[in-house]
Amino acid sequence: MFNVSHKSNSLRYARAEGVLRAHRNTLRCVRENAIPKGDVMATARAAGISAAKRTSDWIVFCHPIPLDWVEIKMQVLEEEFRVTAEVESVWKTGVEMEALTAVTAALMNAYDMLKPLDNDMEITGIKVIQKKGGKSQFIDDLKSPLKTAVLVISDSTYQGTRQDKSGQVIKNFLADYPIDLAVNEILPDNKEMIQNRLLGLAKDGNFDLILTTGGTGFGPRDLTPEATAPLLDKVAQGIVEKIRNYGSNLTPYAMLSRAVAGTIGNTLVINLPGNPNSARESLHALFPGVLHIFPMIWGEGHKEADSS
């Protein structure tokens, strides 16, 4: 089983379908509810819903998922019994396996009930028709890679007495996104130097994104939020709320972050924690959703993601 603890919940949806081919007389009996074993459609629907909820019991790598909705629809046509399953959940992984399992179980129960009447039935065409949710749904098509700077704020790292791990974590993470990492620097915990570099990158360098790491706690030299906040034209409370909320699900210490975020002109600035694990977790919390801010900054408007 893969580790999905770093993923954020989002609305997941999947629709699958499949077909049971049978003789016309057999399907006529289904329509007329004249099957000796009982109501085929009612039984198949119940079986499909029950199976969807227990998918992880027999699909080895599936996680147990709290399903919010399962719907089974059936059509009895001239030569086929067609089943469609829809599944929704607000969770970390997709629900296409649950939809496939629901269809399969419904068709197998129908087969079992009809086999005394028909020896030539065939289950076929089981497939996923549609799925939504997850990070791929929230990746905007940006007009060009984002010109990005990473600033590591640490006296000891600046002095060479401590290795830069957080900056490397951030660099590795950003490699999977439309990011042009043009600057990767180390600065001391000096308010004036931090402010001068932020303004230089935002105003003169025309950077799209600046990520700082370090100096967001309560140590005597933790000054990154104090350096950043006065420069911001628009404060993005939701960004740091997301980081702290995400982190609080993993450790109670997340509430101690004093990070701030917002824009300087057209540049988004985000303070990240200095701890490498915390920096990685913060990035998982933010990406790819945070990228949606850039089309808005560029005046391209706000396009709602389709979550139906």
Describe the structure.
There is one protein chain. The chain has 308 residues and is an alpha/beta fold. It folds into two domains: 10-133, Alpha-Beta Plaits, CATH 3.30.70.640; 138-297, Molybdenum Cofactor Biosythetic Enzyme, Chain A (3-Layer(aba) Sandwich). 33% of the residues lie in helices and 25% in strands. The protein contains ten helices and ten strands. It has helices at residues 24-31, 40-53, 96-114, 155-159, 166-174, 191-204, 224-228, 237-248, 276-286, 293-297, and strands spanning 10-21, 69-76, 80-91, 122-132, 146-153, 179-187, 209-213, 234-235, 261-264, 267-272. It has a six-stranded mixed beta sheet, with helices on both faces. Strands 2-3-1-4 form a four-stranded antiparallel beta sheet.
The helicity comes to: 25-40%
CATH class of the largest domain: Alpha Beta
Fraction of residues in β-strands: 25-35%
| Count of domain modules | 2
Question: How far apart lie the N and C ends?
Answer: 28 Å
Write a compact overview of the structure shown.
Helices cover 33% and strands 25% of the residues. With 308 residues, the chain is of the alpha/beta class. The longest helix has 19 residues, at 96-114.
